[in-house]
Amino acid sequence: MISAQQPLFPIKIQSVMDCQTEEEETREEQRDSENCTCSSKHETSAPESSSGSPVILKILQNWVPRVSHYFDKEHYTYVGHRIVIQESIEHFGAVVWPGALALSQYLESNQEQFNLKDKNVLEIGAGTGLVSIVACILGAYVTATDLPEVLENLSYNISRNTQNVNTHKPEVRKLVWGEGLKEEFPLSTYHYDFVLATDVVYHHAALEPLLATMVYFCKPGTVLLWANKFRFSTDYEFLEKLCDIFNTTILAEFPESNVKLFKATAREN
After folding, report:
1. What is the torsional sign of CA 46, 57, 107, 126?
2. What are the pLDDT digits (tens) for 222-233?
3. Residue 11: partners with Cβ closer than 8 Å, 6 or more residues away
4. What's the confidence (pLDDT) of residue 24?
5. DSSP for the chain, written as a single string
6. pLDDT tens digits, residue range 64-105?
7. What average pLDDT score do residues 197-205 get?
8. Whole-angstrom Cα distance, residue 104 to residue 177?
9. Pairing mode, if any, of strands 223-229 and 259-266?
10. Is there a contact between 69 and 87 (Cβ–Cβ < 8 Å)?
11. What is the sign, positive or negative, of the torsion defined by CA atoms of 10, 203, 224, 99?
């Protein structure tokens, strides 16, 4: 638990997430914008904006209402394409969470900064497949992964939304975090330019396997883009662990939905 007597976030996380807003400057010493990364002990990432601060955004209403006989279908528009997502209330992974909307919006709006065309992209915890579909429309070679019980709905959404898109055919695969990685995804064969993850961190016992999975796939040259709605103290604890391992930069915040988007890369030895 985070004590009410202590700062809300550990110092390392504050340096990533806050980067000296004007309100904080009245309570803290000024820090150079170059230090807006997880830890000053290690080589830092370049800030993603001229001020070193994250972009403050609002999740746009890309949801498009349609008359439908199915209450479980949601309609979105990204990159000029109508995307129809079938959800399922039976699994957490089969619902569109705010982190997926945030990352989809960011990828659409920052194609020059993160050019996915002809890049190898892995999504872990793909859920309904919205982010993977957007990445596919943007021209990536996409591998969407999740637990076995989610794959049927995931495959359905990805297939129906990419079959008429003139891009690389996406792949859907089972991935249980931390299990069988070397056997199922040997590094001699699989290398990814981007690893995408949205709302994969929440109050459960799978955070250590999740971190191990991120470490396994995020080798030098790989960019991890992680968007998450921060709900619990464990979310910030996971962020602190991520900062200990990767060069981590906050790209954007969506205050209305409490979603934060991070970029992480492996440190050079």
Report:
1. positive
2. 999 999 999 999
3. none
4. 39
5. ---TTS-SS-HHHHHHHTS--HHHHTTS----GGG-SS-TTSPPPPPSSTTSPPEE------B-----S-TTEEEEEETTEEEEEE--TT-GGGS--HHHHHHHHHHHH-TTTS--TT-EEEEES-TTSHHHHHHHHTT-EEEEEE-GGGHHHHHHHHHHHHTTSSSPPPEEEE--TTSSHHHHS-TTT---SEEEEES--SSSS-HHHHHHHHHHH--TT-EEEEEEE--SHHHHHHHHHHHHHEEEEEEEEETTTTEEEEEEEEPP-
6. 444 333 345 788 999 999 999 998 766 566 789 999 999 999
7. 88
8. 23
9. antiparallel
10. no
11. negative
What's the token pair of residue 25?
């400057």
Q: How far is CA 235 from CA 208, 230, 259, in A?
A: 12, 6, 11
Give 140-185 pLDDT, tens digit per residue: 999 999 999 999 999 999 999 999 888 899 999 999 999 999 999 9
Its pTM stands at 0.80
**HEC profile of 167-190:** CCCCEEEECCCCCCHHHHCCCCCC
**CA–CA separation, 227 and 230 (whole Å):** 9
How far is residue 73's CA from residue 69's CA, in Å, rounded to a whole number?
Answer: 9
Q: Read off the pLDDT band of 56 (50, 70, 90).
A: confident
Longest dimension (CA), the chain: 58
Average of pLDDT values for 202-226?
94
**77 to each of 65, 104, 169, how far by Cα in Å?**
11, 10, 20
Tokens linked to 187: 């590094």
If one counts every other C-beta atom within 10 angstroms of the C-beta of residue 157, the result is 27
Distance CA 189, CA 206 (A): 26
Q: Which amino acid is at 145?
A: T
Tell which residue, 130, 118, 134, 131, has the closest CA to residue 80: 134
